[in-house]
Amino acid sequence: MRWVYLAIIVLFAVATIIFAAQNLQMVTITLLGFSATMPLALLSVALYVVGAVTGGSLFALLRGLVERSRSVRATV
Description:
- This protein is α+β, with helices and mostly antiparallel strands.
- It is built from two helices and two strands.
- Strands 1-2 form a two-stranded antiparallel sheet.
């Protein structure tokens, strides 16, 4: 099973490298009056990291709330 996970990681890495190589054109994003110009691949990676951090934080927050609600029910 370890080899399957390794193969999936390698395929994902190769797909990411191909995506970055094919999407080097510059794009401009604007948010609340601020604008930035960067390669599309860099923007995609930045958005992925932001999504992973916020998604992981939300998951940890919800898991903590569920665990606390279970401990409160167990004492009642």
